[in-house]
Amino acid sequence: MTDPQPLGPAPGERLLCRLQTLLLEADRLEDFLKELVTLAASELPVPAHCSITLGSEGRTKPYTAAASDELVDRFDQRQYAVGDGPCLATLRTGDPHHVENVDLEERFGDFPGIARESGLRSMLALPLVPPRQQLAGVMNLYSTEPGSFTRPVREEAAVFAGHVAGALGVALKIAGHLQFSLDLQHAIASRTVIDQALGILMSQERCGAERAFEFLSRASQNRNMKLRDLAADIVESVTGRPPSSRPPRPRRSRADDRPGAFRPTGEG
User: Is the whole-model pTM more than 0.90?
Assistant: First the structure.
């Protein structure tokens, strides 16, 4: 009797491994999301386009953080412009929205007509709610054929969206922590320049730190300059060169040396 062949990982396990790999290999949040929508578009049993819409406290409108192709990227912008559609409804309510056939759809105002013009016939918007967090965004799935998102496909997509929400929550938390660290480093760097200028003023005016800070603050207001910029000018006038604008960097770990170290947006 032969030994049974070992079973490979289940589809759900393979997906989780793939999402973990995307997180580890991503250079920036945008890179991770781009790979995510590409994976989503290819994982479903029906041909589909995919995008991820995020809402942000710092933005007045939702925005497409990643799209599998230019078609859905342009279409999302039109949806935001008219202010209605399954994506925006899901973002507002946290509930999934399904459009089986735009030709028969009576909801969402001008949205069905825009979808037809864009060549899209059915769509599915699924909320992305990371564990123990609020709604982070929406995963949008689009098809050029009506009726593509049948009940079995919707159920499979909902499971996928659940995994995506977890990975997105981790990615947003990592990016948020790194951005906080960068902001703190820049604040420390600014404070260092100001302290250097205060030391110079204390020496020149033969006064204490509090009095020197009053001089610096008054000059900053009179010249309509930021305190740090004025402090940098004072340091440069004495030393003959501008103070370093690079923030102090924490000790690097071995993980930081690999090419795929995760970084928040804007960090090159």
Answer: no
